[in-house]
Amino acid sequence: MQVSQIMSRDVHLVSPDDTIAQVARKMAENDVGFLPVGDNDRLVGTITDRDIVVRCIAAGLDGNARVRDVMTSDVKYCFEDDDIDDVTRNMGDNQVRRLPVVNREKRLTGIVSLADTAHESPAIAGSGLREITMPGGQHSQTH
Fold first, then answer.
1. Is the model's pLDDT at 134 over the cut of 80?
2. Residue 15 and residue 38 in contact, taking contact as beta carbons nearer than 8 Å
3. I need a labelling partner for 91 at 20 to 30 A (CA). Which of 22, 101, 113, 117 fits?
């Protein structure tokens, strides 16, 4: 099964120039904790509620800080025609719970989460979750 069959297509994009306060409101309004960051029609990063807490608030910044100051710029993504099992394993290897989904022209088309994959591949999603919850990794906030 392909990622396009399970991904969320209701994607809200933020700008690197948006303030953290704007992004936090958008997260609250849409009940999400992850947003892709786009600049000039390109995916340039992601921001999570955890990024806001650890890289902004804990670092002494306030709601006027810009997304570019706290976002993750090392963007991991998958293609909409990728196989769900492969993407789930990749999520575990990269210790991420959500991935932006792009088409072959690298335009954002959706978001896929580990929860989305669990409905189709529970055993593989469980394996991915086990990897994600391992301490450390490249997306650890202490790096």
1. no
2. yes
3. 22
